[in-house]
Amino acid sequence: MSSPDLQTWKRTHYSKDIDSSMDGKEVIIVGWISSIREHSNIKFLTINDRFGNIQVILKNNEYPDSLSSEVQKIREHASIAIKGKVRSEPKAPKGIEINPIEFKILSLANKNSPIVIQSRKGVGIDTRLDLRAIDLRRPFLQSIFSIRYTVLNSCRKFLGDEGFIEVNTPKIIATATEGGATLFPIFYYDREAFLTQSPQLYKEQLTMAFENVFEIGPIFRAEPSRTNRHLSEATSIDIEKAYADYNDIMEILEKMIHFLWDEVRSKNKSHLEYLKIALPDLSLPFRRYRYSDLIEKLQKSGESIELGDDISQQKLRNLKDDDMKYFYFIIDWPTSIKPFYVKPKSTGTECESFDLMYGNLELSSGSTRIHDKSELTERMKKQGLNTDAFDFHLKVFDYGMPPHAGFGMGLERLIMSMCGVDNIRDAVLFPRDIDRLSP
Ligand code: ATP
Ligand code: MG
Prior knowledge:
The chain is of the alpha+beta class and 439 residues long. It is built from 13 helices and 16 strands.
């Protein structure tokens, strides 16, 4: 299509802006055809744009001959521009419809799509992911990604108001943050480098200069197994705060979740309705379970689990505890199963750490960090890390690293909890996992 067409067919209204008060008014709408129904000699077209849809009716044989070639091209998914009159029609889905005067197919649909637009579940995930951009036209995913957008904006607003500054740290790095097992190696000129698995060390360093920082950015993890909650490339919401400990951070995190819930409730009403989600009322503070108490609770319920073990999703599921249906923290984890930078409590065996959970899904991990260089070096050695490789990091600790704490939270996990999504792949536009590298 040549650009003069776009000049001729400039949209005058989005579907959401057309209502029955505009009866008789001429408008130009632009969008794609999401459904075609035929009834005796009438075609009912649903035209979607980014804010919704509107019905267009086309009576066979009641359009000028000059349009018949365009009518031939009408097919689901085609892009179309329609000049027409608004008409009140109580039987139409929104009480209005458009009667076309003229229209033009701006881009043809050459094939029938395997993706059923109105379906909530859709066809198999692989078929959907192979044609993801088309899949994303479904209201189910439109709702999820509209909510995701609100969450991102609201996170920025909340953290900005709390005195955090947004930063962007390198994604190409020389050394693993938390051990090397899940790193993706890449070529970096004549050297080996890695894609970052977390902005951890950089955000810690930045507390020296900016005190309170946050980053919303990609993390890369070569997750070895196929699960519904792991991606190879995810988006992490990370914060780090100077002169704070893990209790301060939990307070910020629960306040932030509360704020996000309120924002989505007010800004995404129609999307929540479509998803049939009633966001539960949240009361603060969230419950805090000590790790050791939870282990005891699990043991009492018959699970075979020992102090020092990680707590699996399945074990939490088995507990069937109503108090653990929504948000809660698990705090004071064993030092031995948390990364080297997490600060041990005075006992040494437990550390100042938390996981934020939603039901049995881990959303976030956070902690007080070690700010003393010799203590940090010791912890690295204990975990078998090569301290020379962390020299770039350790050396800034010689210059007054403030005590600090923070968290990392998976955005896609948060969206799963909010939107009731079972598979994390539907919380990201183009998922990456062990089997999938395109589209
Ligand atoms: P898990 O135990 O669920 O694999 P983790 O404890 O290894 O997660 P952390 O290193 O604590 O993950 O990362 C902080 C947060 O980042 C997690 O709580 C989770 O929300 C998110 N996250 C981590 N790895 C992934 C991943 N592969 N895909 C999606 N989100 C992830
Ligand atoms: Mg974790």
